[in-house]
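Sample intake sheet
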Amino acid sequence: MPETVTTLMRLPTLNPRLPLHMGIATAFALVPVWYRLPGSADSFSATYSAGFLLFWPMLWTVGWWLALGLPGFAALRRDPARRLWALALLLLALWAFLSATWSYTRAFRPEVTAGAALPLGVAALFAAAVACAGSPRQIVTTLCAGLLWNAALAGLQVALQGPVGLRALGEFAIYPQQSGVSVVLAEGVRWLRPYGLLPHPNILAGFLVVGLLAALRLAFSPGRRAPWAGGGLLLAGLWALLLTFSRAAWIGLAAAGAAILPLLWRARRPGWAVRAAALLGLSLVAAGLFAALYWPFLANRAGVGDDASLELRSISDRAIFADFARQAISESPLIGVGIGNFPWKASRYLRFTAFDLRGQPVHQVYLSAWAELGLVGLGLLAVALGAGVEAALRARRRIEQTLLLGAVIALAIIGLFDHYPWTLLQFQALWWGLLAAAGRPDEPLTAPG
């Protein structure tokens, strides 16, 4: 009997925070997955976001964080920058819910505002839990795994010029001949851009950018095998990103790299510069090869080729909605038209034009925030981003935190050209969750291996 008791005492005890960490990892793993649960609510319903598989591990994470007594919250509260970040983000979510009282659709579709406020509220609480209990290393590892399978899936979709048969996981039926499917044109050929398990190639590109920045951790790991694996993953991810033909994502990656390079350089170790030069050289070779293979498509994508009509139409459509956003802002500059309401407001403007368009979000995060939540919402967004970046710069200890900060910057730059970091649950969770993890202060001082 005493031996049994001694044996039991030696068994490892279960970490009470394990379910919390599992929830965080699962949520980040499901960011590039659009899968909706059977019987989910329709679009624009109040509970639309609850139909995403991702919604539930986010809610699980928040629930466990509350059940465990808010671990890490006391440390967050003592840090001025992190405290301001959390307060601004939570107030932004609260302001979004309050916008239901003045929203454009309150008289005929009140559920529209609730349906847009709910994911932002859950994302804000999820980010708070990550800020208090998340592990930057765990998140980076999860993002590297996501980059691996998304790069492979993107390559297969392009090679097949269609879906690979993952309909059960939410893959869309994408064929270049279909109207509405995103393609690039050249010499009469419609070339499919990869979607992954997401609803648009630009959105996939946003995740690939985040994954590429995370994969730099593997490329600069100590040892012999890890750097080779990291370099291979980076090249595969870069090729997949190029295949998306997403200009905003390309710009976001370049801007993020330029922003974090000084931070990484100061933390360098012997051999770091050689690896960086090798990776840069290989990346330039890959980009050059891609340009040689796809030059007609690239020229048309840039609007200078012989068949650039599709791209010019896309640019003109974006300009129209940007103008509508400015018009909505002029009508209600302080409080906006209500979160999620801009597409409905744009539909009203379209009635008085000859444009063959339907209401959609403006392709710019900051115009979206201003149009929907007014100067108050835009100010809270700016404070949350600014305070979060300041906290990340102060707390930076590991390379993981620097790379996560780079991913936040990349999404902020992409937000100048696209709306999904503001409008989609997946990227609300990713953007704010990354910023939360980048500001974690309790990481020991290390540099790249």
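Comment: Residues 18 and 64 are 10 Å apart (CA to CA). The beta strands are 183-186, 189-192.
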